[in-house]
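Form 12-C: Joint structure prediction
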Amino acid sequence: MTDFNRHPSCYRHWQLQIDGDVAHLRMNVDPAFPFKPGYELKLNSYDLGVDMELADSIQRLRFEHPEVKALVVGSGQERAFCAGANIWMLAESTHPFKVNFCKFTNETRLSLEDYSHNSGVKSLCAVNAACAGGGYELALACDEIHLVDDSNSAVSLPEVPLLAVLPGTGGLTRLVDKRKVRRDRADVFCTMAEGMRGKKAVAWGLVDAAWKKSQFADKVNARAKELAAQAPAKAQKGIVLEPIHAKVDGNAYKYEYVQCVVDADARKATLTIHAPQGPQPQDGAAYEQAGCRSWALQCWRELDDALLQLRFDHEEVGLIVLQTRGDRAAILQVEKDLFAHRSHWLVNEVLLHMARVLRRFDLMARSTYALVDGDACMAGAFLELTLACDRVYMLDDDKVQAVVGPLSAGLLPMSHGLTRLQNRFLAQPEHAAKLATAQPTLAAAEADEQGLCTYLLDPVDWEDDVRIALEERVSLSPDALTGMEASLRFGGAENCDSKIFGRLSAWQNWIFTRPNATGDEGALTRYGAPESAKFDWRRT
Amino acid sequence: MSTVDLESKIPNNVGLRENKRLTMALEKWQPKFLDWWKNVGPSDFNQNDIYLRTAVGVGQGGWAHYDYVKMPDYRWGIFLADGPADRKIHFGDMLGEAAWKEVPGEFRNRLRRLIVTQGDTEPASVEQQRLLGHCCPSLYDLRSLFQVNVEEGRHLWAMVYLLHTHFGGDGRDEADAMLERHSGDQDNPRILQAFNYPVTNWLDFFCFTAFMDRDGKYQLSSLAESSFDPLARTTQFMLAEEAYHLQTGENGVGRIVKRTGELMAQGQNLRNVGAIPLEVIQRYVNFWFTGSIDLFGGEDSTNAAESFANGLKGRYRESDGIYKDPKALNANYVLEVPTEDGKISKQEIPLRRAMNAVLLDAYIADCKRIVERWNRDLDKLGVKERISLPDRKFHRYQGVYAGFRFTPTGELIDEATWTKRHTEWLPTQADRDYVNSCMVKVTAPGKFANYIAPPQHGVNEKPIEFEYVRFH
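Section 2 - Result
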């Protein structure tokens, strides 16, 4: 299994320094420690290992450092801010790994934006030197970009001219949708390998400010202090995030609340998730007391880890079968308390985390089927998880109930901003609103009537129909399914976040597999090789 | 043969008279250049008559004219070497195709970057050397300094001509920016680090011209092979002038070494007579030589591979046909690479990626030759000590050896050993203070400061005691 646990005390590539209410996160990649052997991480270029530390540090800032009110993302190296994703790593990686790497880094950057929008901590990117590709995409994920104006340091997205691929971490989308750079200027910028410097970068909206080298540190610090002063105070002391470990037992990952059993031959994994057991905190103070041990945090951190294991270590698993278990009343009580205390900083973070894990689930490039049988717990956030699946198979049984909880009305939004109820009932928005407000408890037949399951199966048919459904699904083309699912899961209008993932799965993944990028004579393959790339000039 | 127009405001052999748009652009840039020269060029000598060489043509013999001139009145011109009209690309992927008269769109940015990086070094060195006139060791040397300075200024003109002619508005912006960056300026420094180092005394200056200008020669040589014909012809002509700068450095350090040797042979205490001990000269050589090899870029460089593949930069003397394979494919280069466990391993990399290292090899061989020349003088004087060239791995900030510590003989050492011993190898503040204290200003014709021997010959067949600079 892949260990996603990281801790600032043993970061190899980042330095996290808390200076009063301002946090400084400095990238200082150790070239000698790539995630997999075979390449060097020169010039602050990054790979999965580097991004795991970044993801960890943002997570720790949220939970462990509520005193932080502004974040400065900078570099610990004088000559490079960040050169982006390591090209040798990309060139050597398998296609599934590349895509999952890009997806993970996207989620990390979105968590940084979520930290700004929903935790109130604005981030400022201090671009002290050359900032290319993924480096600039990281900058774009921050609220403000400050560039050193030394007539040398530039921001750039050189992917198209240098590598014949796209900036895969939201660069293109954020350029026009977030920073609202004019499209023709964005076009020029994205085909100019050397990028743009100083005042011109400011004039074109690529960065927010450019400062002379001698003023740079002072200006950045002063602005960070300003941002911190504008942010509300939350708390002085956070909780501690302990590592998450699964017990690996043969083909099973066993956590406290989550279990994931991989059936490699059948290309499926059964993901079982449990409702709270035992007493749970009832208010903010109790959550602080409980640290990372509360169900609302522990269970969802475990689910997060399990999803990542499936992505990175089980590429051939094409179908995730979701089973929910446990006491509906217990999960609903926890959610009632979370909802009531949602303005408390930690409760807010717990809810935001839950929402991010659900979004990670939405974005699995695997088919997802929920089996709602007599032992199922289709309530509250587990109902959300069920509705996140491509299909819901429900047993027509007295024990089966579906309960809409208080979080379904908007605290657990999907990437494109809709609730899962809104997304499900695009044709009947009033129906979605009614379910969210009334928070009904529905018997199986009612749930079917209300549109909460795909198939309501008679107990006589259950076993066979489910088996056939699963077998049929895993027999279909994985590529076609990925594209189809990504298209069907997110109905309605797009936003910046959903476009980032949509563009990634559609365009970038297509380009990554095209000969012009990764064929024997492709630009990515030949990057740094003696021969230049050769293109197939036909356009589609 | 191109026609040389010496009557224009800007002397040239590129037909400026027929190109009104370009003439206007360059005439707009000219006052900015003159302002720059007055503000950060040589300090205080602009009203003196200097016996200078001025380029007046590009033919094999007699391309230069010598006369007294005030530096601001120097005729900075634009000259391209003559070449065949139907030159073919002679290396890289486009081998055999016609050389480009115009910039191909796909290489525009890369070429502009190459030209800007080269061009930026020209005014940089003038800025670095601006105060040296005040402590010149002789009139002969003062003239040499100014000759180097005005010609670096002309090289800037050459690069600005290319930017204005072939790179549109971006090129004009870059040409302006070259006058806005300043050597050592904290906020707006010169692009390459070694061009921000201070040059405070004449040992610095001679080391600079011996090593950094020699680096310049090799960089220019690789551009002189370029498939972009105007760049190739511009740099070919620059090389003719550059040769003098290298001589100034090579002879200058040589004359200091020789003088030290003479005084040693006489049994003099060097520090009592204002001469510079060999060990101090050695440390200066170590510093400037290693700074100059950093300018070649990484030994293993994808950029270098691309520039070669695209025909933008060739190898040293590529057009002389001295390399077997003009495409440089299917061959490897063996590079010594330090490993984490403190060893050196030999690593094979594709030859194209090693183009910087290949150019560096030619450069180092050239440097070895000049050091041997200096040592021959010591030998003749019966002095046993020698100047040596440090290993290429020593004191590096760029390339595969950056981040590791090596001795001047190329042994990998740890940080503690480096901290303890680096003052044996690199100039210390005490060295700098001492060398600066030797810098006495000597301006009587034919007289020389005591730390430096007179040259073998004067300039342009004039005697050594000729009045090379007339003060008023």
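Section 3 - Comments
The domain at 8-230 of chain A is CATH 3.90.226.10 (2-enoyl-CoA Hydratase; Chain A, domain 1). The first helix of chain A runs from residue 48 to 64.
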